[in-house]
Amino acid sequence: MIISYKKLWKLLIDRDLKKKDLRQMAGISPSTIAKLGRNENINTEVLVKICTSLKCDLHEIMELISEEKEV
Hints:
By secondary structure, this protein is mainly α. It contains 4 helices and 2 strands. It has a two-stranded antiparallel sheet. The chain is globular.
């Protein structure tokens, strides 16, 4: 299973926010935004900051995707 943050980017678009806005609202670093963009693992503390600043739940910003290989 891999983590996808596509839901987060869609939520930002729907709310007319930029990554810079999220960074300022949640108090997270540019390197954390870069990690999110690469679907890398993020500390749960950071996820809580994002959810708190966007007033949303974890399932609204991320999802687990199966790594099944196509035959």
